[in-house]
Structure formats: structure tokens, C-alpha cells
Amino acid sequence: MNDLAPLLTPEGRALLDEVRDTDPAHELAVATRLRRDHPAELVSAALGQARLRQRAVAKFGAEDAARMFFTPNGVEQSTRRSVAAYRAERLRAAGVRSVADLCCGIGGDAIALARAGIRVLAVDRDPQTAAAARANAEALGLAGLIEVREADVTEVDPAGYDAVFVDPARRSSRRGRIFDPEAYSPPLSWAVRAALQAPLAAALKVAPGIPHEAVPAEAEAEWISDGGDVKEAVLWFGTAPGTVRATLLPGSRTLVSRGLPDPGVRPVGRYLYEPDGAVIRSHLVAEVAEPLDGGLIDPTIAYVTSDALRETPFATAYEITDVLPFNVKKLKALLRERKVGVLTVKKRGSAVEPEELRRKALPKPHGTASVTVFLTRVAGAPTMLLGHPVR
Fold first, then answer.
1. pLDDT averaged over 10-residue windows placed end to end, the chain, 391 residues
2. Residues linked to residue 86 through DSSP beta bridges, in sequence order
3. How many angstroms from the chain centroid is the CA of residue 213?
4. How far apart are CA 336 and CA 344, in angstroms?
5. 336, 338, 339, 345: CA torsion to nearest 10
6. Cα–Cα distance, 190 to 202 (Å, whole number)
7. Which residues, other chains included, contact 67 with Cβ-Cβ below 8 Å and sequence gap of 6+?
């Protein structure tokens, strides 16, 4: 029932320290050597945990990952530390001092909440996952603030806690990623009912692709990106019902909806702005375009164009040098003429794969110049926009 138990013994912990930096390419030799002095099952468990810890560095940082315990699903599905810390700070600032963390996984959010000084009840029904959460609370010195309970969250009464945080399972072993919020485990409707009963606030973690029409009227919807990658959407209760926002980490830059109409379509100008993914998911492209005096290159494409160069944290600016109909041969000749050695391909609204175009248009470098090519549509026509990022 609990594969972590052997690793929590003195022998297991010592073995984990020994295999900590094992190169996967050398695992067989390391395993063969260690099995002379340790049970084969323990050696396999330690090497497996070492692999998971190495994968977890990207989400939790090297220091925490080296001390924590993971399951394969836990590494895959847990919240990135920066996102969890941001969310915990929002709850702390709202006056929350205790949270029922339902579907806690291996404890990533519970750890962030506890580090914000919030007392946490962390609940998960999977025995191994709950064991990992408990081990992580102890390993990081947070056991005094985190109580881990192995239970079905739908049978847990969160009464007595200021807030509720729910992170429903959005993957299935049979179907893979789940897109229907009512197919989450537990369903979104159950999570909303639990959120509405929380005394101070609640936060429900949902997939970034959640349809806007599925957001309850009582909720604030926030899309969060970290380092340019959209990580999740959060439905907040007890904050600002009906508000839509995009938040970019690091730095916690937030854009809030003002109900602006969609930008108009205009010819490609000198600059192209690529909005952050959280801006696009939250349908806030108009809020980015307005201060740029910008418009769309196509009514269905979230690229903003303008003749003005203005600072914005919510989009990356490119200076456009060429606007061409889609034609691989012409692009190849142009890259050769300009001695291009580095080609970056981005696409939006095009069926062409970037790697395929890169292989055909630049089979070998012609020099040291660099170019960014946007495969997109302009007023409905397949188009290539050439340019470079504005530094």
C-alpha cells in the first residue's frame, strides 16, 4: 500500500543520498553495485525516486526536490512552486489563516500555503499520494502546519477552515487529459458547491482551456502563466465575482478585463505584438491592444499590429521587415540572400508545422543573421511575416 515506507527508513534515506545524482545512463551499473549490500527492491525504489526528484527540480527547485518524495503522477500534475506561492499569498492577503486543501496530491500547494503561515488540512484518497504529502511536510519542516488525511474529499467536512482549495484530477488512465469540467474528479459542480460554503474565500484549480461559459457567475476567473507558459486557470470565490484577469509570473503582473470590444482588423504595421498565452486564454487581447493603438491582423488571430512601439509586459514586440504570401521557395531564397543562420518559426492559424518549414527553408545555415518567421493569416490569406524581437 505504501511504496515509500522503505525509503523513509534510515537505510532507505542513506541510499537516497547515495543515488541522488545518478546519471540515468549509469543506472544499471549503479544498481548492480548497490544490490550487493541492499535489497533489490529498495535499490530499485531509491533509483526510481532519484529519477523523480531530478524531474521535479523544474517545478520545485533543486533544494526542495532533493528532500521531497514523489509519485510519477505527483511530479506530472503538481503545481509549479512559483504559481503555488502566488496563490498562497493571495489567500494570505485575503485574511485566510486555515485552508482545507482537497485533492492535495503530493503536497505542493499545501507546502506553499504552510510557508505563507497558513494551517492546512491536506486530503487525498490515494494511499501512496497521501503518504508522499505527509513525508514532504515532514521533510520540509512543515508538519506542524500540515495535517495530511487519506480520504475521499467528497466525504470530508471542511467546516472550521477559512478557505477551501480544490485541485480536481483532470487526467484519466484510460482517456488521458480530461476537457469536460464535469468529468473532473471530483466534478467542477461539486467543487463549486464546496467553494461557496467556505467562510472567507476559495480557489479551484482548473485547466487553462476551460470554456469561459463554464465559469460560474459567482467566480473570478484568473489565467496564470509562468515564464511565458500558461500553467493553469483558477476560479476564485469570495474575491471579485465576474472579474477576469491574466497574471504573468514571475513578478505578478496582472491585467484585468475592462469589457473592451474586440480590436478592429488593420493592415500589418511596423510592429507585431504576440500576447502572452494567459492574455489570450483570458480573452484580454483588446486590453493589450488599446494602449498600443493596435489592431488585429485577422479577426480570428491573436496577433496585434501597430506602427507604435510601446512597452507592455503582456506581449512580446517584434519589428516586421517583410510581409509575404506563404511560399517556401521564396522564403528559402530570401534566407540565403540575407545570410540567415538562425531561423525561429512561430505559428498561429497555420497548418504548417514549424519544424517542417525550418527543415525545408533552412536546410543549412547561410551565415550568422537571425530571423523570426510567423506563419499566420492576414485578412484570411496564408501569410509569412518576417522580423526580429525588439530588445
1. 80 93 90 93 94 95 96 90 97 97 96 98 95 96 97 94 93 70 88 96 95 95 96 96 97 94 96 98 98 96 97 97 96 96 96 94 93 96 97 79
2. none
3. 22
4. 15
5. -80
6. 13
7. 139, 140
- Candidates 270, 260, 272, 273; CA nearest to 315 is 273
Beta-bridged to residue 181, according to DSSP, are none
The 10s digit of each residue's pLDDT in 33-87 is 999 999 999 999 999 999 999 999 999 999 999 999 999 889 988 999 999 999 9
Calculate Rg over the CA atoms of the chain. Answer: 25
Asked if 102 and 129 touch (Cβ cutoff 8 Å), the reply is: no
Q: In this structure, what C-alpha cell is assigned to residue 108?
A: 505542493
DSSP string, 174-230: TTEE---GGGSBS-HHHHHHHHHT-SSEEEEEE-TT--GGGS-TT-EEEEEEETTEE
To the nearest 5 percent, what fractions of the chain are helix, strand and coil? 35, 25, 35
Count, residues in the chain: 391
Entry pTM: 0.91
